[in-house]
Amino acid sequence: MAVIVLASASGAPGVTTTALGLAMTWSRPVVLVDADPVGGSAILAGYCRGALIHNDATVNLVLAHRDGRLSAALPSMLMAIPGTQVSLLPGARSHGQAAGLSDVWGALASELRALEGTGQDVIVDAGRLGMMHSAAPLIAAADLGLLVVRSDLPSLAAARQWAEAWSVGVEDGSGASSGACLVVGEGRPYSGRDVAARHRELG
Q1: Could you read off the pLDDT of 103-127 as tens digits, one per residue?
Q2: Residue 153 belongs to what H/E stretch?
């Protein structure tokens, strides 16, 4: 498996935390991509507590893509998280800066898929689905899309809507190759079994 994308349908169920935790426990080298269009570099500011200085990867990605050297420049934009097998591609500093990546995501998706040949997998934090400047080409390039949801009714209702759209997207090439739902806060109030059973009932 090469590319896994995590996203939410509504609210803030913990996509970034889940993506980071998955990357930190991955069995082989992994590239963690912050593609949340909200910006703010949550991983650098949160988990890294500002100890790693942002390398302006967003600006560098745009320039490298414009000059036709994205493949050669990408390795230098990855930041190693000390004590782990995780290399981080930091996200945009702001929502406004994320707008500049709209033309880059498609080319970047191809480069990230090619990392499988070097023994690296890719985990993408895509933030909330449906937002302006979201990394749609990265979602479309994913081998697996994980929809992160809480176990309450509003979250599950939103997840159902997006899961249907995602399934349609698989058919027309705009959605991940396969998808699954990852429930955060199981039992508050519904269990993973309840969620799965209800999903089967609704088709």
Answers
A1: 999 999 999 999 888 899 999 999 9
A2: helix 153-172
Which one-letter amino acid corresponds to residue 141?
A
In this predicted structure, the answer to whether residue 189 has a pLDDT above a threshold of 90 is: no
Whether the CB-CB separation of 10 and 128 falls below 8 Å is answered with: yes
Q: Calculate the average pLDDT of the chain.
A: 84
Q: 86: closest CA among 142, 37, 39, 21?
A: 21
Q: Give 150's pLDDT tier (boundaries 50, 70, 90).
A: confident
Nearest to 159 by CA among 129, 124, 191, 117: 129
Q: How many CB atoms are located within 10 Å of the residue 182 CB? A: 17
CA distance 168 to 198: 20
Question: Cα 28 to chain center, whole Å?
Answer: 18
Token pair 């500093």: residue: 93
